[in-house]
Specification:
With 506 residues, the protein is α+β, with helices and mostly antiparallel strands. The chain folds into 3 domains: 89 residues, no CATH class; 247 residues, SGNH hydrolase (Rossmann fold, 3-Layer(aba) Sandwich); 141 residues, Jelly Rolls. Helix content is 38%, strand content 27%. The chain is built from 12 helices and 22 strands. The chain has a 5-stranded parallel β-sheet with strand order 17-5-18-19-22, with helices on both faces. A 5-stranded antiparallel β-sheet has the order 7-10-15-12-13, with no helix packed on it. Strand 1 and strand 2 form a beta hairpin. About 2% of the residues have low confidence.
Length: 506
Amino acid sequence: MRLNVPTKVILLLILLQILIFCLSYWHEKVSFNLSVNQDKEIKMQFSSLPRLLGTTDYKALAEIKRTQQRIEKLQNLVKKKQQADSLKQQSQQIQIDTSQEAQKVKIHNYRKDSIFALDKFFQALYDLETQKSKKLIRVAHYGDSQIEGDRITLYLRKKFHKQFGGGGPGFIPIKDIYTPPAYSREASDNWIRYTMFHDIYINNRYGYGGLVFRFSNPKIRDSTIKKAYIAVSSNKYGNYTRAALLWGNTDTPCHVTTIIDGTVYQDNLPIQKEFGMITHHFRAGVPVVRYEFNAAQSPDIYGICLDDTIGVQIDNFALRGHGGQGIFKMSAEYLKSQYKALNTKLIILQYGGNGIPYVTGEESAAQFEAFFYEMVMFMKRANPDASILMISASDMAHKVDGHYQSYSGLGLAVNAQRRACERAGVAFWNLFEVMGGQGSILDWANQNPPLATSDFIHFSEKGCALVADLLYDALMNEYALFKKRIIQQRAKSLEKDIHHEIKRLP
């Protein structure tokens, strides 16, 4: 027999009265204990249902609401306690290398205003590792001939790609005096190369690599249409899925034809002074990317990037003979816009070698310190959202009385660089000490196979790979310390919240 709705309600009320009668034999209060911390236990006490129903309806409803709120707060406390315990376990599982070997090659991760020098870069890495972010993080590696031709940078890039993802060789200049093995490049012969060191440009609006390329002379103005091209690929080095042309400072419109794997893209560069990018995506592979330009006046072209869309990319910016002084010729504000657009989170400065012969005493060492302090402070202004790491000058030797020996001022110069970094609150890696200090370049050159070349200045390819390995391991050890520290801080913060919420429980 099917019951109608009124009958169902009457039956439910009868059942409820029977249930109330049965419960009236219970104690007036029900209590239980809940463990939230090792030394904290909450004792909760609730009025029994008969007692509730013995009061007025308003009081009963209020008591029920309070009880529900207590239960919800307790459930949240239990969840927070579980999260805190889980974070503590994660922290314990992070391995830190505390061996003597690790201490010899460690990075001085100086702390300033409660922030460690590499925290911004490490936070970006952590967001990538935990999939909180799905962006490409860029690292800009600046230096002299010691890193020319993608030396050292290439091996670092491979390490980061393997651990954090990424692909492609990163930044490729339109024209250079050296073509590294990481990529191939073919270009028309009308490109003019300007750098922040040689062939200074007419203004300070350089690309973030300290370079400007043009297919027409900016001092010669005519309306003749000019053409140029550049084709790049990286068939010796990993897949990439994105090509970006970096440009700016356009006086006249410029038409750009991009050809990738037979697909043709047509773009027009408008007249503007700001930094711009033309970006094209494609399936992962190693295609040749060709750009063809057509304009009365060349825009400023800064280079090409072949990358993946997620992971870590390291760009190599090497200028032979450069001591770092050219950095001050660049516009910090213009650099800032590029670093932001490219998501550059770490700047590595590897200079000093070209200035070592001139450090001969305390006075010249003090000048060396002042110079590098100003350099890192300039980079801080140009990219306040990035970390900065300075790599010291390496050991290097010259002939004295017919025998090679290390430059006498090396120790003074490296200590000057370290002091500059400590004052500025940026990270410092003492490559001179990592190598073994005074005279180590001779040992490196005499090893089999040699780790340094016969000029007793530059590293061999084997030496470059070793330096990259040591630097990467030092970075990852600091990164592990960072992860341990922030996970422990989160656990402590949760436990503090639990403590306060216990006190506020009704």
